[in-house]
UniProtKB/TrEMBL annotation:
InterPro entries: Leu-rich_rpt (IPR001611), LRR_dom_sf (IPR032675), Prenyl_trans_a (IPR002088). Keywords: Prenyltransferase, Repeat, Transferase. One of its GO terms (cellular component) is Rab-protein geranylgeranyltransferase complex. The keyword Repeat applies. It catalyses: geranylgeranyl diphosphate + L-cysteinyl-[protein] = S-geranylgeranyl-L-cysteinyl-[protein] + diphosphate. One of its GO terms (molecular function) is Rab geranylgeranyltransferase activity. The keyword Isomerase does not apply. Pfam families: PPTA. This is Geranylgeranyl transferase type-2 subunit alpha. PROSITE patterns: LRR, PFTA. GO terms for biological process: prenylation.
């Protein structure tokens, strides 16, 4: 009862409990040893079935015992030479029936035991005449107890396939579950998977379900969103429908840029992650795979399964040129002396496109209906974050990342963060990507930042955008040499490893308190860390290793001002051939 203090158990009670626990443990250890001994002797008989069943009824998660049972059943079920068809079928059915009974008891002990569900389907596959209708009823009962038992959902899908039940019939099953419980997220998810099979898109807009189906599903889900707005389930299904209505283009990885970052090092940047094997095919002159290295947050990743957007190629000094296959019809000769680099303007603009993804008129009408529902709800109740999130996502899908949409989006994001502080960082990161693309393509002036980069300007100014990451910039690594990120929220420097061509980096007024050992920018000459959180001289001890060509370091208005001698001693030791100019005060 509430507000009633628990009386501590006496020493005698605790001792009795401990003695009972030890006795059970000893009994289990003896049983386990007996099972393993019988298995090692090849005694896969009725006795080992009996012994393992005693344990698995209470603890069904010991998958080794289920494996032993399967081997024993396979051995016992072998047909004897003098056994009639009738006797064999009777014995076979009895064994399978007993095994199904055991798995049922095991699932009563733990309904989410993967091992027990696996064993159950293994039996069904081997029954001569399995009662699949009864099995579906079992699944229905289990899902009524816990509608999110994904082990049971997996089992049901396998049984449906075994029973050759149509996707249309399963849609009716999902309907029944949703009608009885609109918050059944698993039923909505199952429904979406079935719709992609039964009503695929034929309009040519790239959607995963047909236009009529999309409209019908919105008609089905929007009333639920209206009267049960605080439940995230219906909004999650809305999100799937919205993204299905406005799919991203699926394109093969394209080479965006190829450029020399040193006399013998080439940086390749792709539109999507690509493997070392694929890079090697595009550069047939490089026979040695060791000269192809992935560029990531770590200095270099050599895992052959690694896929990255950015790759570094090391050339022989005697041949500072490389032929790169841009597509099947042409290639590009990259020569260090010519100063020419490959830039795929069209593909880069496509990566940072701010245009709407909604191409279907039917989809557009459905999304406009969702916007109306969201706005009506916000006029009534203003404390549900899912409504704000749905409205934000939908207006972007409908209108693209235009200036007025960004302004409205900023307001919505602040509301969402306030209502759902637990996911504040997630919302910030997602919105950061949108704002970055909009800033890059902003054409309110004569030309956008992206246009300037593509026309040859290698400087990029991204001050005061509340950026926490430069991951959005990785596709531009082959174009940028001077990057200004003053007054943002960046604390992790190793993410800049994807920009080996950087020569100047301004990070003033960012929450940086150290320079990680894994940071490596081989061409950086100027680094500005003014008004950061650097406090101890030891925070800069890795600078010479991280930036081997560094010439100037600015640390104005940091804690290092009071440790100037220590900083000089670390960065400019007596045995150093080059001196780093350190600025402790603004000029």
């Amino acid at each position: 009862m509430h507000n009633v203090k628990k009386t501590p158990a006496s020493e005698a009670i605790n001792a009795a409990y401990e003695a009972k626990r030890k006795a059970k443990l000893q009994q289990f250890l003896e049983t386990r040893e007996l099972i393993f001994q019988k298995r090692s002797r090849g005694e896969l008989d009725e006795e080992i079935l009996r012994i393992t069943s005693e344990v698995l009824e209470k603890n069904p998660d010991i998958y080794t015992f289920w494996n032993i049972r399967r081997n024993a059943l396979i051995s016992i079920i072998q047909r004897a030479e003098d056994e009639t068809d009738e006797d064999y079928e009777k014995r076979h059915n009895e064994l399978m029936k007993n095994e199904l009974g055991l798995t049922r008891k095991a699932l009563m002990a733990n309904p989410k035991s993967y091992s027990a569900w696996f064993q159950r389907f293994w039996v069904l596959e081997r029954e001569i005449s399995p009662d699949l209708k009864q099995e579906l009823e079992l699944c229905k009962t289990a899902l009524a107890v816990d509608c999110r038992n994904f082990h049971c959902w997996d089992h049901r899908r396998l049984v449906v396939k075994l029973a050759e039940i149509s996707a249309e019939d399963e849609l009716e099953f999902s309907n029944a579950l949703i009608q009885s419980n609109p918050s059944n997220y698993s039923a909505w998810h199952y429904r979406g998977m079935l719709l992609m099979k039964t009503q695929p898109d034929v309009s040519g807009h790239g959607m995963v379900i047909s236009e009529d189906c999309l409209a019908g599903e919105f008609e089905k889900i929007l009333p639920i969103c209206s009267y049960n707005a605080e439940d995230q389930t219906s909004w999650t299904y809305c999100r799937w429908l919205s993204e299905s209505a406005c799919p991203k283009e699926k394109n093969e990885p394209e080479l965006l840029t190829a450029s020399f970052v040193s006399p013998t090092d080439v940086l390749l940047v792709f539109s999507s992650p690509i493997s070392k094997k694929e890079v090697s095919k595009l550069c047939p002159g490089l026979l040695d795979d060791s000269k192809i290295k992935a560029i990531s947050f770590a200095k270099c990743l050599h895992d052959k399964y690694q896929k990255c957007n950015n790759w570094s190629l090391s050339l022989d000094p005697s041949q500072p040129s490389i032929s790169i296959i841009v597509d099947k019809d042409k290639d590009f000769l990259l020569e260090y002396d010519s100063g020419k680099s490959f830039v795929n303007d069209y593909a880069i603009k496509k990566v940072y496109s701010t245009e709407t993804r909604c191409k279907s008129p039917v989809a557009k009408e459905a999304l406009e209906g969702l916007v109306r529902v969201c706005e009506e709800l916000l006029n009534i109740d203003n404390d549900i974050p899912w409504t704000y999130a749905a409205l934000l996502r939908t207006i972007i899908l409908l209108n693209g990342e235009k200036d007025d949409i960004i302004t409205r989006g900023d307001e919505l994001v602040q509301k969402i963060k306030a209502l759902d502080p637990q996911r504040e960082n997630l919302y910030h990161e997602l919105w950061e990507r949108v704002r970055f693309s909009a800033k890059l393509r902003d054409s309110s002036s004569d030309s956008s930042l992206l246009d300037n980069l593509l026309s040859g300007d290698r400087r990029l100014d991204l001050r005061s955008l509340s950026l926490t990451s430069v991951d959005h910039l990785k596709h531009l690594a082959g174009l940028i040499t001077d990057l200004d990120l003053q007054n943002n929220l960046i604390s992790d420097l190793k993410q800049f490893n994807v920009f080996p061509g950087l020569k100047s980096l301004v990070l003033n007024e960012n929450p940086i308190d150290k320079i990680e050992e894994s940071v490596y920018l081989p061409n950086l000459k100027f680094l500005s860390l003014g008004r950061t959180n650097l406090k101890e001289a030891s925070a800069v001890k890795t600078i010479r290793g991280s930036f081997p060509r560094i010439e100037r370091l600015l640390v104005c208005e940091t804690g290092l001002i009071d440790q100037q001698e220590e900083v000089h001693a670390i960065l400019n030791p007596n045995d150093s051939n080059s001196k780093i100019r350190i600025f402790f005060y603004y000029m």
